[in-house]
Amino acid sequence: MLSVHKFYTDPYFLNSDICRIGGVTLQALNSLEEDFLDIIDFNLVIDEAEYEQYLNGLKIFFNSPLSAETVSVIEDIKLAMVKMEQQEHSQRLMMSGSGSHPSTQGSNSQLLLQQ
After folding, report:
1. Within a 10 A sphere around the Cβ of 27, how many other Cβ atoms?
2. Which residues form the domain of 31?
3. Are 109 and 82 members of one domain?
4. Would you say the pTM of this structure is higher than 0.90?
5. From the CA atom positions of the chain, what is the Rg in Å?
6. Residue 108 near residue 90 (C-beta atoms within 8 A)
7. CB of 32 within 8 A of CB of 26?
8. Which among 3, 39, 57, 110 is most buried, taking Cβ atoms within 10 Å?
9. What is the C-alpha to C-alpha distance for residues 106 and 93, in angstroms, rounded to an integer?
């Protein structure tokens, strides 16, 4: 979408701006953009029928309920993220020297029990 936006719009955001917003490196975004343009042979123009085909496909996709497998994967990702955040929090406590405080030990074990 970034490449198409640049193609159709005179004032566009720089890749460095997009990187700050999206949290990716400039090198990674430039590489992705170059790979994408290579794949489509730098052809950013499509006819109206092709546009309608993709638009209808997107409408169907985003209006469809998620499969049980997709929901399961999303839940697994959420659980992994929570565990990672808890580990990072525990590491920060240990590094700051407050990991040995009785009240923080109790809260850490409560967090682990909630999983």
Report:
1. 10
2. 2-63
3. yes
4. no
5. 23
6. yes
7. no
8. 3
9. 13
Q: Which distant-in-sequence residues (6+ apart) come within 8 Å of 80 by Cβ?
A: none
Annotate 35-65 with DSSP letters as a single string. Answer: HHHHHTTT-----HHHHHHHHHHHHHHHHSP
- Verify that 88 and 47 share a domain, yes or no: no
Residue type, 74: I
pLDDT in tens, 76-93: 888 887 888 888 888 888
Alpha-carbon distance of 3 to 46, in angstroms, equals 14
- Whether residues 83 and 38 share a domain: the answer is no
The count of other CB atoms within 10 Å of the CB of residue 19 is: 17
The position carrying tokens 């697994």 is 76
**Range scoring the smallest mean pLDDT among 6-10, 80-84, 100-104:** 100-104
Structure token digits, residue 79:
């659980």
Q: Are residues 45 and 10 in the same domain?
A: yes
- Quote the CA–CA distance of 37 and 1 in Å, as a whole number: 11
